[in-house]
Amino acid sequence: MLHPLRSLLIAFGIAEIAKPQPVINACERIGLENAEEAELRPWALWGARLEGALFVWLLARRESGWTPASWLLGIAGVVLVVLPKPIIDYSQQLVYANADDLELKPVVKPTARLLGVLYLFVVALSASGTEPDDSEDVVEQRT
User: Fold this and answer.
1) Where are the domains of the chain?
2) Are the CB atoms for 70 and 123 separated by under 8 Å?
3) Tens-digit pLDDT profile for residues 7-65
């Protein structure tokens, strides 16, 4: 049986893969003063889908341990927690065609740090693998 938070994050990842626009819209409402002026670059939706796929892959796999993907997400998480401004600036330029015209809300830095914590949490959950189901416990107890 999966940990409830693991299941919730997998569901979020699947939703982000299937429908990334509502996730991006929510992030824009949270972080931009002039969200209605944001002009997404064509690859922005694919970037959101990639983030969702990474969450699902890391959290749904059966084996525990570190992978290159978990290292990458972990490093991104640490950088977002410790030094969010360069990542915010870079991601704005990467995602928006008119990044210089967008006004960031003051909440962007703390929110980016929270995103970093989320990344680290996903990595920690993925490093432990998935919990065995009850039928595996019963078999092990009989032997």
Assistant:
1) 4-127
2) yes
3) 999 999 999 999 999 999 999 999 999 999 999 999 999 999 999 999 999 998 877 67
